[in-house]
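Structure, all three chains, one model.
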Amino acid sequence: MVQKSNSIPYGFAVGSAGSLSPKSMAFFENVFRSIVREEVDAQLKAHSVDVEEGKKVGGGGGGGESGGTNENLRLRLTNKIPSIIYTSNDIEAENGEELRVELFDVVNDRIIDVTHPLSSAWIEIVVLDGELFDHGEAINHLDFDTSVVAQRPEEGPWLVGDDKRFRLQNGVYSITNLSFTRNTFRSRTKKIRLGLRIIYDSNNNYPTIRPAVSNSFRVMDHRSQLNKKHHTPRGEDEVWRLKGIGRNGKYQKRLTSRGILNVEAFVKAYQKDSRSLRKLLGNRLSDRKWKTMVEQALQYVPITIPTFHPPNVQQENLEQNAGMDQNEAVFNQNIYASNGNYEFQDQTVLDNFQDSLFI
DNA sequence: GTTGAAGACGTTTGCGCGAC
DNA sequence: GTCGCGCAAACGTCTTCAAC
């Protein structure tokens, strides 16, 4: 057994697991996981050496062209999956590009030669537990297989789409048709990964290639996307798009009862009388939430102007804003967002904002 | 000052229903 | 069968307040 250097948390004794704190539980889970993994890897390595030696004796494989194991060839995803994706939406990479799969040679970091039989191999995508691997960690088949999330027959397939199984074309493939049918809310870690492995059957004699594993991510219900807060709200957005105001929550009801239906109306009410607006929301609303709410609202994109103009060219902006009412145009001159911070060009607007924090 | 319980509210999701 | 919507419940976060 491998000796671990991790120390035992103070206060732990055998038989006290029932009273362990979550932190201690997490600590022991990690320790046990790493110990088990090291043991399994060691056994697997010993086993694979046996197999390789057996094959060499038998004269088959070893060269990586057919049969056996080829440690130099690996599957990989060349781009990252966003940390949150939504059910029913096709899975895309972080920048909106297609997810790209490559079978490459680790020796020269090049895509497999088009003449290689594996350059047109069939690939299968499965859902893996999100906690089990560090991104970039070399994955062995045992770890991979044991972390495949079991599918419950009553729930139907988790992954759907033409690209659940696909065939590499010249060693590469772009995934365009693959989506989740349900979210990861009920899974223990709430996170999963995609796993890709070559499909082996009696018709091919591919060498064994290590599977690929994506970064971990959450799958959320597509309705969460519809209800998402708008970091830079539009003037016509309903007030619940602001952080701290729940859809159909008390704050939205209080605001709508006074005719404040959208973000633009919220900002105008704030401009007119920030103290009254603050009082309308009640004492339960903390200063922190109020500040967050106002800061987000002040970033709004006015209904009549599709883009927000920075105030460093004030005269030019006033001319561009000629179509909106004067208060709105002047207000746009007074603030602008930069890395989430505001700069108030007009002292009265700054005073108004600061006063509203101390009601 | 610290800690923990209680409460308020927002977020997320499952489920059912009706429309198409 | 699929989609959109509303409702309700579970859960998470944050604040307040009393006890120490």
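Chain A has a mean pLDDT of 64.
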